[in-house]
Amino acid sequence: MSETIIIPGSRITLQDWNWLVHNRDKGNSSLAMFSHIILKMNHFKSHPLDVDDYLRCQDLMRIIPWVRENLDLMSEVSPTWAALVARWQDICHLIRAGQRTEADELIRRICLETKGA
Fold it and tell me: At 51, is the pLDDT very low, low, confident or very high (cuts 50, 70, 90)?
């Protein structure tokens, strides 16, 4: 079990902290996930804009399983996050099937359809 670091209102472990401090391949959307799910803060609202952003989020979920287990919490952040969470597995399947362009189009369509919502 990971050692827990005490930050009021959060559930952060040493593994989580290491991702935040040492991982250089993180973007605003994965930081939003970390902030909302781990730190229980809703300061970052950024969502994946393309496949690269999505894959950084997937990487975070691979490194910190707690984030994967609680992905549905991101639906609270914005209508765009809610729509992305609802289609998360569809995007994943497209990427695994080698259909990166289609996955990218799906992400962009979701972002466009929920813009201003």
Answer: very high
- Closest C-alpha among 90, 86, 109 to residue 99: 90
Which residue is listed with tokens 């079990």? 1
Token code pair at residue 41 = 């803060």
Task: Specify the pLDDT at position 56.
Answer: 93
Asked if residue 49 lies in contact with residue 107, where contact means CB atoms within 8 angstroms, the answer is yes
Only one residue has tokens 């991982």, namely 23
Q: What is the mean pLDDT of residues 21-34?
A: 81
Note the pLDDT of residue 38: 83
DSSP, collapsed to helix, strand or coil, labels residue 5 as: strand
The token pair that represents 17 in the structure block: 């902290």
The residue extents of the domains of the chain are 4-114
- Reported confidence tier of residue 1, pLDDT bands at 50, 70, 90: very low
Helices 79-86 and 88-96 pack at an angle, to 10 degrees, of 50
Give residue 89's region: left, alpha or beta (phi > 0; psi -120 to 50).
alpha
Q: Tokens representing 39?
A: 């730190």
